[in-house]
């Protein structure tokens, strides 16, 4: 992609209502643009990052037997009345044709349960798991912190259906491992911990995945030995590590990036969702729910992976692999060299953002590259060519080096090609 043609550009202006690092840097970097409070447009750079996060999640869900579906964002209020959740404060209520009452879904238990009921009848159909990646809507009283707490946000929700509690427990542990693999691939593995939280009306506990973040909005109590934590909301009833019994827990700040529940039979009972066992007897379905927020995780990564110059994207989700900067482009010889390198990279299926602007200073181009945060920067200029080739700099390192064009084969092409 040529920067001169990119829809959405960097800006030095800081949004007056940017109350978080991610809101500030993602807007300045040309990744998102605020529509209204808690609702954002994703520009090309931002959508590329979001899609890469979604695809990592999708791959890990497929590995554990999840089948992807897509459910409607809007549904009748009737199902919410069935589960007695139609009075939830976060629900957006709408009026449809014929004075029908509609809801914008903040979650999809009320949709997926009657849907699964149409296809799962026998023990032979179980266990089964379906997931979707879709936007949700919650009427937050105070949307804040950029992508961390919005009124419209992107969510992966997986739902599992089981013959009994034992099988639910088995699959629940499989999902836990899959989530940790996701965070590892996103570059958050070492700082994301399993956190015990209230299970509400479903079970004694639910589990949150909390990423340690000194600016996080949650307070958790961490057992460093086990890397397990307790959410502040249940610390009065669970004062020691659930794993080892350690009572010397460290108080830390964190951001929730995932939440999983054993729903048990709450929704299956509401919808009279039964299956027939081997003996032809009706048994209630056990259910689990597993949420992951790609957009929220995107914001969390920016909160953690940045410096005073801008974002530092992990390689797995960076919008592009290479930020190619051409300087002295008034010189036809240099312009020809840069254009050739750009085409060579594209021909090797390497993702490149090429700053091809002519009437822009080197300082502006470098500042934009730092703000956007692509992992590897390549610079071709009169100076670099005089010094032997191309200047290579990693975004998370201070020093650059000059490499020959021929050595790209062993540096860039082998890594990304």
Task: Record keyword descriptors for this entry.
single chain, alpha+beta, Rossmann fold, 2 domains, five-stranded mixed beta sheet, 11 helices, 29% helix
Structural summary, described in words:
By secondary structure, the chain is an alpha+beta fold. The protein has two domains: 3-307, 2-Layer Sandwich (BirA Bifunctional Protein, domain 2); 322-416, Anticodon-binding domain (Rossmann fold). It is 29% helix and 29% strand. The strands form six sheets. Strands 9-10-13-11-12 form a five-stranded mixed beta barrel. It has a five-stranded mixed beta sheet with strand order 20-19-21-22-23, with helices on both faces. A hairpin with a 5-residue loop joins strand 14 and strand 15. It is elongated. The protein starts with 20 loop residues before the first helix and ends with a helix. The relative contact order is 0.13. The model has no long low-confidence stretch (mean pLDDT 95).
Estimate the global geometry from the Cα principal axes: elongated
What's the gyration radius in Å? Answer: 25 Å
> What kind of oligomer do you see?
single chain
Unreliable parts: none
Helix content: 25-40%
Biggest sheet features: 5 strands, mixed, barrel
CATH class call of the largest domain:
Alpha Beta
State the separation between the terminal residues, measured CA to CA.
17 Å
CATH fold field value of the largest domain: BirA Bifunctional Protein, domain 2
Number of discrete domains: 2
What CATH architecture of the largest domain would you give? 2-Layer Sandwich
